[in-house]
Amino acid sequence: MLRVILRAVFVSTLATGAYAQGTVSDTRSTNESGEAVETILSSPESPVPNESTAPKLTADHAKFKKLKGPFETGPDVTKACLSCHTEAGKQVTRSIHWTWETINPATGQTLGKKTVLNAFCGNLATNEPRCTSCHAGYGWDETASFDFTDETKIDCLACHDTTGDYVKWPTEAGHPLYEPRNQAGLNSPYAKSLIVEEPDGTLTHLPPDLARVAANVGRPTSANCGNCHFYGGGGDNVKHGDLSSALLEASPHVDVHMSTEGAGMVCVDCHVGNRHEWPGSRYHGTISDTSHQRPGMRNTDILACNSCHTSTPHKALSVIGGKLNDHTDRVACQTCHIPEFAKGGVATKTWWDWSTAGKLKDGKPYAEEDENGRHTYLSIKGDFRWGEDVVPDYEFWDGIVEYTLLGDKIDPLGIVGINRIGGGPGQPGSVIFPFKRMLGKQAYDAVNEYLIQSNVYGPEGDTALWSNYNWDKALKAGMAGSGVPYSGEFAFVDTEMWWPTTHMVAPANEALKCGACHAKDGRLANLAGFYLPGRDGFALTDRIGLWLLALALGGIILHAGLRIVSRRRDNREG
User: Which of 245, 396, 492, 510 could pair with 441 as two cysteines, CB 3.0-4.6 Å apart?
Assistant: First the structure.
């Protein structure tokens, strides 16, 4: 009883702390004319659509003379920002958003976009101007010459624009447009207000007004984060599967946290920033938050579901709730609460075969599409498969991820893991976790037997695959300067890459029920190494159990029969 009372007091304290934070919080948004406005949240029960519980702003940036411009380039804006935010530059240059590099504390591997190979566009090296369109800076067009200490190259606007007008151009090494750009197709994402349809059907993309954007900076929105994280790998939801533009106007079904009909949260409500560092990483996962926290307060260095929901989130006084709480040390919250990903009508790539790239028709590149208008083949990228409302793959995971890096030996006769997840049914700290398992085929050195880099982007020269459709030249250029020998002979190998699924959380009434897993043909049918009631059985114990059940039923029937006979006898004697 004492434990129940203490728990009730603790939960009440959490709620009181959260409410107290909500009453003084506000958000930054834009009105119909695009001007920045402050919106104060009166309480957690009355959230403003598409807004968040941000700290109250103490400055109107539109009043700062230094931000009135005109600005010719993004770095000019950054210089103005740093003149007041004197420590921000140092903080950003230490962050993974800037370095694209991190050391995995469990494996010692140096990881990050700068280093790893992936199952999508492959690698950063030799493709910098295209890949770094999602870097938190300007001008990273060659890794060897980019100055990572130059704070004026930081892009403040990518994360802090609230107008929706600021978008980096995909081939300008992190810069936005500074002059109008006309082309046949639409660049996505891009502000609709800055797109002009010409009489010939082409589209002119206008550059953003940097002074207007600088005057309307604020707390990062989901759109800011999504400009890069939703569109990684070459398109909307291509890479992660659980991060797409569908989250910007999500229904509760798509994501109960981010829906305005749900919690109305944005990315940084969970990924709480501290000195320009954010918790949460696919390079080193957090299974459970074991840090000590004050009631109602978040530890900004770590992120897991129980950071907010605790490790016993279900109603402990109910039979089902108590049993569900018993699962949290072996089953991740996401396993039950994200029944599928790629929701909201935005599909994700599930298979990418690079080996077929480079084919031409009548000497020209070509494309093929499915009935939904999604590419199933591109000469520059190969064959694809897509999936919507995808049921995750389930594996035991302890948060450790190890990557196959450039130069690591592989077995080309099997499926090569671009990354490998740690954990198992008998290993401490491992839980059943949902994943997107990305499959495909990638190039490897047929003599030295390791995965190799390719040069895919480059409008100048004759080595880029996307311009010349020649694998031999693309691979030689990709490996040049890598420090890893290349034999010059290549082939393609089957690969897989594991992506933890942590977004697109369903409402409680859509969470998986017991029978979804505790069944012979359930979701965990292929997850081996442990006993799962309802799925597994042992012939001897099952037989004993059936005999005991039969004996019990027989005893009940015999007892009932004796009672009936005894009552009839008593009635006759009476």
Answer: 492
Do β-strands 393-397 and 348-353 pair in parallel, antiparallel, or remain unpaired? unpaired
* C-alpha to C-alpha distance for 283 and 278, rounded to whole angstroms: 13
Q: Say what the pLDDT of residue 203 is.
A: 97
For tokens 């230094």, name the residue: 66
Please choose, from the candidates 178, 188, 181, the residue with its C-alpha nearest in 3D space to the C-alpha of residue 237.
188
- Token readout for 259 is 């829906």
Same domain, 336 and 382: yes
Q: How far apart are CA 485 and CA 487, in angstroms?
A: 7
Q: Are 300 and 274 a contacting pair, CB within 8 Å? A: yes
**Considering the entire predicted model, what is its pTM?**
0.84
Contact 445, 452 (CB under 8 A): yes
DSSP 355: G
Distance CA 138, CA 154 (A): 6
Query: Cα(387)–Cα(532) distance, rounded to whole angstroms?
Result: 29
**Among 205, 203, 194, CA closest to 171:** 205
Residues 232, 238 contacting (CB under 8 angstroms): yes
Instruction: Say if residue 563's pLDDT is above 70.
Output: yes
Question: Within this chain, do residues 546 and 411 fall inside the same structural domain, yes or no?
Answer: no
Domain total for the chain? 3
- Would you give the distance in Å from CA 267 to the centre of its chain? 11
Structure tokens belonging to residue 271: 């990924």
Q: What is the pLDDT of residue 502?
A: 97
What would the mean pLDDT of 274-293 be, rounded to a whole number? 88
Say if 282 falls within a structural domain. yes
38 contact partners, CB below 8 Å, separation of at least 6: 26, 27, 28, 56, 57
What is the residue type of 286?
A: T
Q: What is the radius of gyration, based on Cα positions, of the chain?
A: 28
186 to 168, 203, 226: CA distances (angstroms): 14, 7, 18
Q: How many whole angstroms separate alpha carbon 465 and alpha carbon 525?
A: 42
| DSSP state string for 210-255 | HHHHHTTB-SPPHHHHHHHHTTTTTSTTSSSSS-SGGGTT--TTT-
